[in-house]
Design a protein that fits this description.
The chain is an all-beta fold and 171 residues long. The chain is 0% helix and 50% strand. The protein has a four-stranded antiparallel β-sheet with strand order 1-2-3-4, with no helix packed on it. It has a four-stranded antiparallel β-sheet with strand order 5-6-7-8, with no helix packed on it. A hairpin with a 5-residue loop joins strand 1 (22-27) and strand 2 (33-37).
Length: 171
């Protein structure tokens, strides 16, 4: 009997990714796969990769986090604490980092009608939209050593240095 072929297909820069090291992956409602790398954002349609970089309005090519909301707005975090907002194939806004000493974005997730941003050093932030546009507000300013934010329905959990935390008290 022969061995079964693994159900995975591997992609790299040779196949069209901007870089082979991918830090986050999401799929939008149209079926496109989105990938963040340290050389830009990639959108894959099953055949070809489209790229989004500084040349396309991204605030940085060093991308760390990705979230796609219910209306397919793509939220992309970077190592300098900025977030690009993409609708369709266009960068429509860039959210500036909080403070002068920007902290890398670790994760972006939606819970209810809120979008939460987990940073390396600035804790948990919320994305707010008002008459002046998008901006970030601090929800939990204490550096918590958080690594990942996970949302399932109305439940959110943080994995942090040596602990698991329910962040509901701050959101």
């Amino acid at each position: 009997a022969g061995s079964a072929e693994p159900p995975f297909r591997y992609y790299s820069a040779v196949d069209g990714l901007t870089q082979s090291d991918v830090s986050d992956i999401e799929q939008d409602h149209a079926g496109y796969l989105w990938f963040t790398t340290m050389r830009g954002l990639n959108r894959y349609d099953g055949n070809l990769f489209d790229h989004f970089t500084i040349a396309d309005g991204m605030p940085s090519n060093n991308l760390t986090a990705l979230y796609i909301d219910a209306v397919d707005t793509v939220w992309v975090g970077d190592t300098r604490g900025g977030i690009a907002v993409i609708q369709g194939t266009r960068v429509v806004d860039v959210i500036k980092p909080v403070g002068d000493d920007a902290s890398p974005i670790r994760d972006i997730e939606g819970i209810g009608d809120r979008i939460l941003v987990l940073t390396e050093n600035d804790g948990i932030l919320g994305i707010v939209v008002d008459e002046q546009g998008y901006h970030l507000e601090s929800l939990e300013a204490e550096p918590i050593g958080a690594i990942n934010l996970s949302v399932s329905g109305d439940d959110a959990w943080l994995t942090a240095d040596s602990r698991l935390q329910d962040p509901k008290s701050v959101v």
